[in-house]
Amino acid sequence: MRRLTWFNATSLTLGFAFLYIPMIVVIIYSFNESRLVTVWGGFSTKWYGELLQNEAFLDAAWVTFKVGFFSSIIATILGTMGAYVLVRGGRFYGRTLFSGMIYAPLVMPEVITGLSLLLLFISIGLDRGLFTIILAHATFSMCYVSVVVSSRLVSFDRSVEEAALDLGCTPFEAFRLVTLPIIAPAVISGWLLALTLSLDDLVIASFVAGPSATTLPIKVFSSIRLGVSPEINALSTILIGLVTIGTIMASLSTKRAVMRRERAERMAEQAG
Amino acid sequence: MPETVFEPWNDPAANPLIQFRNVTKRFGDFTAVDNLSIDIFEKEFFALLGPSGCGKTTMMRMLAGFETPTSGTIMLDGQDISPIPPNKRSVNMMFQSYALFPHLTVYDNIAFGLKRDKLPPDQIDARVKEMLRLVQIEKFGQRKPEQISGGQRQRVALARALAKAPKLLLLDEPLSALDKKLRQDTQFELMDIQEKTGTTFVVVTHDQEEAMTVASRVAVMDHGKLKQVDTPDRIYEAPNSTYVADFIGDVNIIEGHGKAQGDTMAISWAEGQPPIIGTPSKPMDDGNVSFAIRPEKVAISAERPADRNNVVQGKVLDIAYLGNLSTYHVQLPSGIVIKAQTANSRRRASRPFTWEDEVWLSWTDTAGIVLER
Ligand SMILES: Nc1ncnc2c1ncn2[C@@H]1O[C@H](COP(=O)(O)OP(=O)(O)O)[C@@H](O)[C@H]1O
Ligand SMILES: [Mg+2]
């Protein structure tokens, strides 16, 4: 192990301070007895209790969860199908155009995506609510899934799929039994990405959400405008906790995968 | 039982298993396979030999069903196979990259094709175990492909392709990833397995030694065209073109003007030199020809041999010592360099000739072959 130089240590400290001090402040204040943000009134968990009593927040959280769940699944299925056709479909007419178009929503400003979806829903007479948010989220996160999955498809040997056909699979069986298990990690990453994007989204959701359904980010944002409440701090702390657990689990599983691969390489060497 | 020679290609009554009839394959305006016709017979070990990019893999892929011919037909067992998708053909392929399923164990890789046929589980199990035994990887059945070595992966690929007992097994450069020693051992194993299973093998290779070792017949290809299809010894001893002669093994080529003289041909090749006598590869008219002779058929001596028509004098330019053999590069007065090979039967025998020595080269009238130019 190399020791950190003075310069490196400073950069590290400053960088991480910049990233994490705001969150630490939120966490500390979520345990503040006092309602006032600027005054420390002693340690308390009462805001967590109040949060759990707050119907509006709980409803919004439930909506967010449902939207994330359904939209990410739709996005994963459509995105994977799109990636498969664009990468494996051969050279059909207009393929380059389609490949380019799948990236366009990634760079489109969110307000524009939100606005166009809103106009679409109004023009086809769809009532805004849970369903429209799910559709909107599936639409924009599907592109991300498709990008993640196609990069995996490009990198894996086409002949593995041909081998499946050669051994008697129909094209659909070859996809289900061979392609899908091989690209599964990319599909799962794409799904997690779609889920995160959906849970995160404020702009698009605020265009397409209606009075019947509000997501958590919208709820938080609108209540902040009436003043910071300690309940929001508590909520944020819970979210930070969840994200932390998720990240740790993800990095542990990556580490396990690396160890598994190293073990496989050792076995291959010994097998001679 | 009298030993019958396996030569269905000489039997007019034999029905070929595979027939390529004027098959052409184009990619855009590039012609990968050019109006090619071959018959391949049951139980043959047929080798496609040619330099990289000459269309060997494309031929395999047309047989397996991954490419369709631009024109012409391919018949399997007398049936046109172009409308049959890959999964319905009784043809299996061992891929150049092995293409093992990384998420399945060795056992499940081999069982994969059998499961598609919906065989009963105990039958599948028995067949997989038989295959594991055949290619000698019983110990590794429960491992993933990433947990075994390259040579073992190649065996798994072979076992997987053989498991369904196809009528025809296609092997695309099956041994190219192995080092020389292992490759030679595996060649003999392949021949053994081919004999045991009685499957027809079509093997692609760019290694001429490999083709000569394993094959019952060899097809030499160049730029999508067939140059010659014949048994390994005929390809070596009686090539029909300088391309084939040059591609297979080492050869000396002398160009000149040929004149028929009974069964042989006299070739004037240099001013003031007696003509070379050679045997034509087929009946041919007088005209410009190439004379091809293998280095091991050229004798080298210090004295002029008295009993031969073909005698030339030259100077030793270079000597390549190959352990069991020595190759002398001899320059003739006209500037041509001829290679002569001798076997080193005695250990550390002092070399009879050295650089700059004046030597005589000679060969019999039937040692060299006359080819059209
Ligand atoms: N799908 C394809 N599209 C365009 N060109 C191809 C394709 N497949 C093969 N070719 C070309 O056809 C030629 C023959 O290829 P191949 O059959 O793979 O040769 P090899 O004898 O080395 O196996 C090569 O020049 C290759 O570039
Ligand atoms: Mg090839």
TrEMBL record, chain A:
<dbReference type="InterPro" id="IPR000515">
    <property type="entry name" value="MetI-like"/>
</dbReference>
<keyword id="KW-1133">Transmembrane helix</keyword>
<dbReference type="GO" id="GO:0005886">
    <property type="term" value="C:plasma membrane"/>
</dbReference>
<dbReference type="Pfam" id="PF00528">
    <property type="entry name" value="BPD_transp_1"/>
</dbReference>
<keyword id="KW-0812">Transmembrane</keyword>
<feature type="transmembrane region" description="Helical">
    <location>
        <begin position="12"/>
        <end position="31"/>
    </location>
</feature>
<comment type="similarity">
    <text>Belongs to the binding-protein-dependent transport system permease family. CysTW subfamily.</text>
</comment>
<feature type="transmembrane region" description="Helical">
    <location>
        <begin position="99"/>
        <end position="124"/>
    </location>
</feature>
<keyword id="KW-0472">Membrane</keyword>
<dbReference type="GO" id="GO:0055085">
    <property type="term" value="P:transmembrane transport"/>
</dbReference>
<feature type="transmembrane region" description="Helical">
    <location>
        <begin position="67"/>
        <end position="87"/>
    </location>
</feature>
<protein>
    <submittedName>
        <fullName>Putrescine transport system permease protein</fullName>
    </submittedName>
</protein>
<feature type="domain" description="ABC transmembrane type-1">
    <location>
        <begin position="61"/>
        <end position="250"/>
    </location>
</feature>
<feature type="transmembrane region" description="Helical">
    <location>
        <begin position="232"/>
        <end position="253"/>
    </location>
</feature>
<dbReference type="InterPro" id="IPR035906">
    <property type="entry name" value="MetI-like_sf"/>
</dbReference>
<keyword id="KW-0813">Transport</keyword>
<feature type="transmembrane region" description="Helical">
    <location>
        <begin position="174"/>
        <end position="194"/>
    </location>
</feature>
<keyword id="KW-1003">Cell membrane</keyword>
<feature type="transmembrane region" description="Helical">
    <location>
        <begin position="130"/>
        <end position="154"/>
    </location>
</feature>
<dbReference type="InterPro" id="IPR051789">
    <property type="entry name" value="Bact_Polyamine_Transport"/>
</dbReference>
Automatic annotation (TrEMBL), chain B:
<dbReference type="GO" id="GO:0016887">
    <property type="term" value="F:ATP hydrolysis activity"/>
</dbReference>
<keyword id="KW-1003">Cell membrane</keyword>
<keyword id="KW-0472">Membrane</keyword>
<dbReference type="InterPro" id="IPR005893">
    <property type="entry name" value="PotA-like"/>
</dbReference>
<dbReference type="Pfam" id="PF08402">
    <property type="entry name" value="TOBE_2"/>
</dbReference>
<keyword id="KW-0997">Cell inner membrane</keyword>
<dbReference type="GO" id="GO:0015847">
    <property type="term" value="P:putrescine transport"/>
</dbReference>
<protein>
    <recommendedName>
        <fullName>Spermidine/putrescine import ATP-binding protein PotA</fullName>
        <ecNumber>7.6.2.11</ecNumber>
    </recommendedName>
</protein>
<keyword id="KW-1278">Translocase</keyword>
<dbReference type="GO" id="GO:0043190">
    <property type="term" value="C:ATP-binding cassette (ABC) transporter complex"/>
</dbReference>
<dbReference type="InterPro" id="IPR008995">
    <property type="entry name" value="Mo/tungstate-bd_C_term_dom"/>
</dbReference>
<dbReference type="InterPro" id="IPR003439">
    <property type="entry name" value="ABC_transporter-like_ATP-bd"/>
</dbReference>
<comment type="similarity">
    <text>Belongs to the ABC transporter superfamily. Spermidine/putrescine importer (TC 3.A.1.11.1) family.</text>
</comment>
<comment type="subunit">
    <text>The complex is composed of two ATP-binding proteins (PotA), two transmembrane proteins (PotB and PotC) and a solute-binding protein (PotD).</text>
</comment>
<comment type="function">
    <text>Part of the ABC transporter complex PotABCD involved in spermidine/putrescine import. Responsible for energy coupling to the transport system.</text>
</comment>
<dbReference type="GO" id="GO:0005524">
    <property type="term" value="F:ATP binding"/>
</dbReference>
<keyword id="KW-0547">Nucleotide-binding</keyword>
<dbReference type="InterPro" id="IPR050093">
    <property type="entry name" value="ABC_SmlMolc_Importer"/>
</dbReference>
<keyword id="KW-0067">ATP-binding</keyword>
<dbReference type="InterPro" id="IPR017871">
    <property type="entry name" value="ABC_transporter-like_CS"/>
</dbReference>
<dbReference type="Pfam" id="PF00005">
    <property type="entry name" value="ABC_tran"/>
</dbReference>
<dbReference type="GO" id="GO:0015417">
    <property type="term" value="F:ABC-type polyamine transporter activity"/>
</dbReference>
